[in-house]
TrEMBL record:
Keyword terms of this UniProt record: Signal
Pfam family for this entry, one: PBP
Keyword match Signal: yes
Name the UniProt record assigns to this protein: Protein FLOWERING LOCUS T
Species of origin: Lachnellula suecica
Gene3D superfamilies reported in the protein's UniProt record: PEBP-like
Top-level division of the source organism's lineage: Eukaryota
Signal peptide extent: 1-17
Amino acid sequence: MLSSSLIAVAFAGAATAFTPVGFEPASTNNLTVAFGNTLAINGVNLPKAEVQTAPTVGTTEKLVGTYTLMMVDPDIPPATAGGATSELLHWMQSDLVSANTTTTIGGMKVFELINPTNTTAFASYIGPAPPNKSPTTHRYTQLLLNTTGSSSALTSLKAAGVSRANFSAVNVVKNAGLSVLFGNSFNVSAATNTTAGAASGTNGTTTASGTAKASGTAAKASTSTAVRTTSVAGATVTAAAGNSTTASPAQSTGGVAGRTSGNEAIFAGLGAIAAAVIIL
Ligand SMILES: *[C@@H]1O[C@H](CO)[C@@H](O)[C@H](O)[C@H]1NC(C)=O
Ligand SMILES: *[C@@H]1O[C@H](CO)[C@@H](O)[C@H](O)[C@H]1NC(C)=O
Ligand SMILES: *[C@@H]1O[C@H](CO)[C@@H](O)[C@H](O)[C@H]1NC(C)=O
Ligand SMILES: *[C@@H]1O[C@H](CO)[C@@H](O)[C@H](O)[C@H]1NC(C)=O
Ligand SMILES: *[C@@H]1O[C@H](CO)[C@@H](O)[C@H](O)[C@H]1NC(C)=O
Ligand SMILES: *[C@@H]1O[C@H](CO)[C@@H](O)[C@H](O)[C@H]1NC(C)=O
Ligand SMILES: *[C@@H]1O[C@H](CO)[C@@H](O)[C@H](O)[C@H]1NC(C)=O
Ligand SMILES: *[C@@H]1O[C@H](CO)[C@@H](O)[C@H](O)[C@H]1NC(C)=O
Ligand SMILES: *[C@@H]1O[C@H](CO)[C@@H](O)[C@H](O)[C@H]1NC(C)=O
């Protein structure tokens, strides 16, 4: 349960929006998100190569109950210039619970949200890969929903997780009869280069090349030196990675299982829009 003091502090700090300004559904309660030991909070801009394996997620207070995490990108460029941006579902994972002990990530002590029952994601994690097409900076937004004992909400979320493109977090949350408890976002820009120099095209139509993406991820894994200290007993879950995503040790020991998807899953998940262009 959230203490009233946490809520008071959160609202006192409401000048910072923890979901992006204007994004709905909004939350001003901080969800801590990190890739390895790198914090991904307050809209920080991260290199694409650092964010291809699902992050660790936690809260400063231990939560009672079970939760569902949603990650969306509300900045998908319109198909035709001048059109409206749309939303893409990047990840939806249910059955998360607070670990019993804290983990220190990037200097922040949090109770990691873990998936001790290894429940399969409603939508497996797809790493950010914004194309070089306006808007080139995308705000990857995480929402934590309280789905404790609510099978109807879970049924509704699971059904919604089937379609990633033209997603509507605000409608999906509302239709599930839920509200957002914690939120966060981080940025990834098309301009951000990857060490492999491979995946991103430079003129708007990034070819969907699984090989290029895989090499970027591998380069990241081999150069990662992130160190995470953890006091969570029994929370180590080996990433269910496709063989194209060789996660570093730091990234493969988070608690959220089913976190990694191979490129095959990415393309399958994207369905029709994967045909020629990645618009993540
Ligand atoms: C989530 O819902 C459960 C059941 O209603 C409740 O016990 C728990 O306190 C809620 N969590 C938060 C953080 O409000
Ligand atoms: C949430 O994060 C912001 C920015 O880091 C910080 O100023 C604020 O104190 C945090 N709020 C809580 C409740 O931890
Ligand atoms: C993240 O990107 C958005 C959209 O471009 C921008 O408004 C925001 O300032 C960025 N956040 C940071 C911390 O730079
Ligand atoms: C936390 O401890 C309680 C009591 O020992 C146990 O029932 C529960 O499964 C533990 N939770 C996790 C996530 O390990
Ligand atoms: C979840 O997966 C981990 C790692 O594969 C395994 O050690 C653990 O026993 C599994 N837990 C359950 C409840 O299946
Ligand atoms: C996206 O969904 C909205 C309704 O939420 C619908 O009006 C619109 O036509 C859809 N766009 C596409 C490209 O499917
Ligand atoms: C990214 O880095 C690679 C290798 O250093 C370089 O060839 C490429 O031009 C860079 N791309 C951008 C968009 O800066
Ligand atoms: C842009 O795309 C065209 C074909 O679509 C290609 O010929 C050209 O080399 C690309 N330019 C850059 C800078 O990648
Ligand atoms: C990776 O997958 C490909 C095709 O699915 C397979 O040919 C290759 O042997 C696999 N590599 C490893 C290291 O498992």
